[in-house]
Amino acid sequence: MRPRYFEEYNIGDKFTTQKRTITDTDITLMVSLCQYAHPMFVDEEFAKTTVFGRRILPGVLTVSFMQGLTESANAWDISGVVGMVGLNNAKFKVPVMAGDTINVEVETVAKTETKRPDRGLVTFKQTCKNQKDEVVVEAELILMILRKP
Amino acid sequence: MRPRYFEEYNIGDKFTTQKRTITDTDITLMVSLCQYAHPMFVDEEFAKTTVFGRRILPGVLTVSFMQGLTESANAWDISGVVGMVGLNNAKFKVPVMAGDTINVEVETVAKTETKRPDRGLVTFKQTCKNQKDEVVVEAELILMILRKP
Amino acid sequence: MRPRYFEEYNIGDKFTTQKRTITDTDITLMVSLCQYAHPMFVDEEFAKTTVFGRRILPGVLTVSFMQGLTESANAWDISGVVGMVGLNNAKFKVPVMAGDTINVEVETVAKTETKRPDRGLVTFKQTCKNQKDEVVVEAELILMILRKP
Amino acid sequence: MRPRYFEEYNIGDKFTTQKRTITDTDITLMVSLCQYAHPMFVDEEFAKTTVFGRRILPGVLTVSFMQGLTESANAWDISGVVGMVGLNNAKFKVPVMAGDTINVEVETVAKTETKRPDRGLVTFKQTCKNQKDEVVVEAELILMILRKP
Amino acid sequence: MRPRYFEEYNIGDKFTTQKRTITDTDITLMVSLCQYAHPMFVDEEFAKTTVFGRRILPGVLTVSFMQGLTESANAWDISGVVGMVGLNNAKFKVPVMAGDTINVEVETVAKTETKRPDRGLVTFKQTCKNQKDEVVVEAELILMILRKP
Amino acid sequence: MRPRYFEEYNIGDKFTTQKRTITDTDITLMVSLCQYAHPMFVDEEFAKTTVFGRRILPGVLTVSFMQGLTESANAWDISGVVGMVGLNNAKFKVPVMAGDTINVEVETVAKTETKRPDRGLVTFKQTCKNQKDEVVVEAELILMILRKP
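Above: the input entities. Below: the structure tokens describing the complete assembly.
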């Protein structure tokens, strides 16, 4: 099978990923492995005193779930993706907590040629929503993708 | 103890975090929990055919370790931090693999007042380096921090 | 100490394993590592719309707990077991959810000699029950076991 | 989107899943959670004395990876799958060790109507191979799948 | 930066660590990795019949959290610590369960010179408390610490 | 089945546990969950500069594996154990690293009656050895055990 090439991405293309429920296991394990230290992530007694009332998933980990959900989306063929080049304008709007179920809307918003004739850059706008249809995080992802030979 | 306030952050302030070795356990667990699907992350036989020669840590997970190392840095008092507002200009330069040891240089690069008189935004430039002193990821982090009452 | 030999297994022998409570950590971690994708396992909002009302443990993972509980049963001496040869007639009757406590009744149901004079095959019927005494999974396990020298 | 119905499965249909490298993290974590006790799985010094020379992944866990890889295969639309009914004739031929990369060939081998007019059973033959193209495990999986309304 | 030397520890010095909420993920994972077998740790139905009413964290794992919280305390500079030599008089008073939030009060209670002129032993009394201010575990920790050159 | 009572423990009784290989997964996960911060546990570059040459398992986690191996020992019936009361005289002699295989020799060394006529205290001397037959940790464990009615 041939990969999906840069030329086959069109500005305005959209797809939506599957959904995943974030569990307390996700939060505990990844907060611990990454050594997050803010009490909002590790101290439930502190978290009870905040507006959120519970420990939350660190924002960058929400972005990490967004990438994973995007990569594993049935609606997307990642076969031409060479690597991630950049991440821009991530905006953290609503925190994700244990029990929340999220998915991501992905839209192709820009295409850029590079010096290398065999690769181009595609920018995707990602909008992550929870089960209440609230936008939790927005981000722009820049991927390097193979061009047609 | 009183928190470290917005007013006490100065542009040009710098500190360096402790170091952490990224293990295959980190990669396997977090790639799996976040459902990363690209063969670069889950298929060692594929990875052997790439310029890197081995499975790598997804870039956003490197950014996640950067936040965790920053939060738990002995050199930084996070007591006034209310939350993360944004993440900008993340540039992925060198991949992180199992066995690499990383730390982060953090510099205060901008301060912005907000409508709320009790909080301000501070932008930090993060430069993550590996054990060969290569810059692996750069990113800008915007945190909301308490102002003096 | 000498191993427990093929000759020492008798058809009709029975024992019961210890019990283990299946936790959300078990489900989240193993579903993620094995890359189960059905929303029944990863999407709590979907699961709420089903007859079960909650995410469940994939059936094969219940079988995996059944083998582990069987191996670590105080009532069984596994010292003569060389390896697993087959698994037959697994029937999935009731799903296992976080908070359920399971154990396994194990009965020796068949013995077969092989071409190799130093080993034989023993078939065990496993019946896994939950805390309500419901049969959740039945399976037949075929193990290769050392024969007396 | 409508689900893929029972009527749309044809005997002889085949697809192949993505690949996944089994890591020592997979083995350690799942062996521990499931309480496997045989020294082949937990005692490297014992394992060195066997023909395999190293700790191995328990066979049922290989079957679990086979289901996960099957569910998350790009080539398969699981939208009509209601649940797993049975698992038959699993044969364990070659053990899987840390560093092995596996995938699964899946073939539709039987279709059975049931009393319920809205569901049917489909049997899939799964053949799991490692990076040396050796067959490691074969199994037959019976799924309940929605029928056309 | 120079390390904090043996000579800089004074009997009667005290500090308090940050707090950490113990989760069911902590209990399930560490109980499984360490192979704890008592039903108090793995069988919720049994645990319901005890005075505690729920599975608990094994006492030695509470001590392990106590060491980790002590090492990562903002209030303590561990730079001169060479290693742990002993652990004494651990007393288990109240069990820790999922959802409890603990921290540790650490007091320097003894200093001992050794034959090696470059190292000394410092004994710390650790008192671990939960969110109800109950003492859950006490222990004495003996660390080897660098002396001034 | 009736529990094994206090009266059935005899000073001088000995047994040896099964063996377990400590993996890098064990070290990474438990060090992270417990927040151990010393570079000996999280920074491989630092560890290379020490006499050990590699990251090690924190001593208290070795003690935790010792308890788990003791509880799950085939040679020991824990049915009468009510709880752990104390841990004394733990001496850390040789560090445990990834790949080491440990087991524990357990000897009954003291029995003490308590005010409660239905329970007594039994002290066990635990000697943990690695695959080179080196003593890595010694400790004394005090358990509360049911007395005969």
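Note for the figure: Helices of chain A lie at 24-34, 39-42, 44-48, 59-71.
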